[in-house]
Amino acid sequence: MTKKVCPIDEAWIKFIDYKDIELLKKYLTKFNKIVPRYYSGVSLKNQKKLARAIKIARHMALLQYVLNVKD
After folding, report:
1. Would you say the C-alpha torsion 57, 38, 42, 10 has a positive or negative sign?
2. From its record, what is one biological process in GO terms (predicted)?
3. pLDDT digits (tens, 9 = 90+) for 7-50
4. In the structure, what pLDDT confidence band is assigned to residue 69 with cuts at 50, 70 and 90?
5. Is 12 a member of any domain?
6. Residue 58 lies in a domain
7. Domain at 31, CATH number
8. Residue 51 belongs to what domain range?
9. Is residue 57 part of a domain?
């Protein structure tokens, strides 16, 4: 059985920054919810850093909290 590798560690990303919107958007659903670890394959340590960066980016208005979807 092979060990899963975290995509963030594999890409040699040392610091998850709230200003790196392109990276953060990869780990959001189409409704701007944070993707769970078992779908994204991110390690627990990086998932916590990622969630914190997304929450800071939302607070700084760099990301939307929810996507406005009208029927």
Report:
1. negative
2. translation
3. 998 989 899 999 999 999 999 999 899 999 999 999 999 999 99
4. low
5. no
6. yes
7. 4.10.640.10
8. 1-6+18-71
9. yes
Whole-number pLDDT of residue 66: 81
With vertex at residue 41, the alpha carbon angle to CA 66 and CA 48, rounded to the nearest 5 degrees, is: 60
- Taking the C-alpha atoms of residue 2 and residue 15, their distance in angstroms, rounded to an integer, is 26
Q: Which residues contact 43 (CB under 8 A, 6 or more apart)?
A: 6, 8, 9, 37
- Model's pTM, two decimal places? 0.86
Measured CA to CA in angstroms, residue 17 lies from 6, 12, 32 at distances of 17, 14, 18
Amino acid at 54: I
For the chain, what is the domain count? 1
Instruction: Please choose, from the candidates 60, 58, 54, the residue with its C-alpha nearest in 3D space to the C-alpha of residue 42.
Output: 54
Does a structural domain hold residue 26?
yes
User: What pLDDT does 45 receive?
Assistant: 95
